[in-house]
Amino acid sequence: MGRKLILSLVSSVQQGKELVMNKHFVNGLRSILCDSSLDKEFVAKALTLPTEAEIMDLMEVVDPDAVHTARRFAVKEIASTLRKELFDAVKNNCSNEAYVFNHENMARRALKNVSLGYLASLNELEATGLALNEYNTTTNMTEQIAALAAISQNSGDLRTKTLSKLYEQWKKDSLVTNKWIA
């Protein structure tokens, strides 16, 4: 469904039409996000929109600007509409415990990171502060990179400083440096 939604929005961008978010799609995401009986990994995957590259792979004639505009619109609309639920997901899935590699913790981190990414797209002080706090306090690279990705969505001094900080911290590790470049 996410692919169809984005492709429809791409078409609207290309035709110069006003972008309108499908409310049923967003309400479906809300239902999934608020259903505590669901596995958190499933919820995280269900909330994840296809990447720009995935959308472009589906197009006969690729229009990167339209794809970027459409996907960015969808992310911000979802974040704006589900703001409270996404904040709750981040807060309910933060942990200061030591990193543990198991399904439960991986799923918790995935849901928190996806939610944080949506919220950071709004470029609001509260969401940006939450992402920066995650970046500064996390005890593992997965969460640090996710917080950095959230912060990096918006241009400005915070993005520049955070990217520089990560580079300084990990510049001797080529694997991390490659992630930083990405």
Query: What is the count of DSSP helices, taking H or I runs of 4+ residues?
Result: 11
The mean pLDDT is 92
Could you give the order of the helices and strands?
HHHHHHHHHHH
Number of strands: 0
What share of residues is helical? Answer: over 70%
From the helix content, strand content and strand pairing, which structural class follows? mainly alpha
Domain Peptidase M1 alanyl aminopeptidase C-terminal: 4-181
GO molecular function: zinc ion binding
Pfam family, one: DUF3458_C
Protein name: Peptidase M1 alanyl aminopeptidase C-terminal domain-containing protein
Which keywords apply here?
single chain; 182 residues; mainly alpha; 2 domains
Write the layout of secondary structure elements.
Layout: H1 2-14, H2 23-34, H3 40-47, H4 52-57, H5 64-81, H6 83-92, H7 103-120, H8 125-137, H9 141-152, H10 157-170, H11 174-181
Helix pairs in contact: 1-5, 3-7, 6-7, 7-8, 7-9, 8-9, 10-11
Give a verbal description of the structure.
This is Peptidase M1 alanyl aminopeptidase C-terminal domain-containing protein. The protein is an all-alpha fold and 182 residues long. It is built from eleven helices and no strands. The chain has two domains: 1-81, no CATH class; 83-182. 73% of the residues lie in helices and 0% in strands.
